[in-house]
Design goal:
With 351 residues, this protein is mainly alpha-helical. The protein has 13 helices and no strands. It has 2 domains: 167 residues, no CATH class; 146 residues, no CATH class. Pfam families: MBOAT (PF03062).
């Protein structure tokens, strides 16, 4: 029915008042289904194979280890992104706007920004019912103290760590989830302390263009370093790799399996370097890697870092023939594939 209405609208104009929501919803649902079945499930076989090896107390070489961790990182990304797109799309089909829950988290330049983009509704819930009741970032009980600002900073650090730790426990009671939450809590602390250090520089007068010798040097530091492409790329690189590494504890069935994979990733066990780049796929045999495995990883990076997300598509979506073709392709290819291979359940159905 949705397809019929879309075709009629493309050729004969609007025929129902909420048609754009219906068309946008169908488009998002199709894109979400494509992400799940075609992309996420493709990474699932390599992630499952790799984690299956290390969880049996065996080891992978450095290539297999990194492909395993990245495969799960992208499997979880496209699985959860597809799940959110399908939910938002279904809501729009019924003229219901569901809250946004996913906003390109792998574009984040720091761990705080990551949590503003990943599982947004969970973050809002924890902020409203845990972070703020704990005192948030200030406590008026300290207001008369001479070290009021310092005490509030300590309070903020404590509350950030507690919230991150609880988010790990919320996903599961296993040691892997606890370690994952603890690591994210520590990362939040480190980032906030780093921000406190930056705030200690007097940059207030920079916007007013009243430069003292000190503020002038700070302005130059901000303009030529903090705003530079090199700094932003470095921030992204550190953030993404931290997220990728911590997902290992999130995914592994046991802590020993996670440690075995990390040993392989950092070459602690053993390292193999092929003399020819074309031989790299053959070094992925233990995780059932193929010649297209590296292509999938490169494609995933490109999609995550350069493509529009569902929020942006929703805001700029137009009902036209091109989007109709894209939606039909994204809808029917996964449906066909579902009949040709085993079904992989959504990862976040477990939480």
């Amino acid at each position: 029915m949705c397809v019929v209405l879309w075709v009629l609208n493309v050729y004969f104009g609007d025929i129902i008042s909420n048609y754009k929501n219906l068309a946008t919803g169908l488009f998002l649902f199709a894109i979400g289904l494509f992400k799940k079945v075609i992309i996420a499930d493709s990474f699932a076989k390599w992630a499952n194979a790799g984690f299956g090896v290390v969880e049996n107390n065996q080891f992978l070489n450095i290539f297999e280890s990194w492909v395993t961790s990245l495969s799960y990182t992208f499997q979880l990304y496209f699985d959860f992104s597809g799940y959110c797109d399908m939910a938002v799309g279904l809501g729009l089909m019924f003229n219901i706007r569901l809250p946004i829950n996913f906003n390109s988290p792998y574009k984040s330049l720091n761990i705080t920004d990551f949590w503003r983009r990943w599982h947004i509704t969970l973050g809002r819930f924890l902020k409203a019912y845990l972070y703020i009741p704990l005192g948030g970032n200030q406590n008026n009980a300290y207001k008369q103290s001479k070290i009021y600002d310092t005490l509030n900073k300590i309070l903020t650090l404590r509350n950030l760590f507690i919230v991150a730790f609880i988010s790990g426990v919320w996903h599961g009671a296993g040691f892997g989830f606890i370690i994952w939450g603890t690591l994210h809590g520590l990362a939040m602390l480190i980032h906030r302390i780093y921000m406190y250090i930056l705030e200690s520089f007097d940059l207030k007068d920079i916007q007013k263009e009243k430069f003292s010798p000190e503020t002038l040097s700070n302005a130059r530091f901000k303009m030529y370093f903090l705003e530079s492409k090199f700094y932003k790329i470095a921030c992204w690189f550190i953030t993404f790799n931290f997220i990728n590494i911590t997902w290992v504890f999130f995914r592994a069935e046991n802590v020993q399996g996670a440690l075995n994979l990390l040993k392989g990733m950092f070459g602690i066990v053993w390292v193999e370097f092929p003399y020819d780049a074309r031989l790299i796929p053959h070094f992925l045999n233990a995780i059932q890697g193929r010649n297209d495995t590296i292509v999938y990883l490169v494609f995933a990076f490109i999609v995550c870092l350069t493509f529009k997300n569902s929020i942006e598509y929703t805001q700029s979506f137009k009902v036209n023939k091109l989007n109709f073709v894209i939606a039909m392709f994204a809808l029917y290819v996964p449906i066909i594939m579902l009949g040709l291979k085993p079904y992989e359940p959504f990862l976040y159905f477990n939480f």
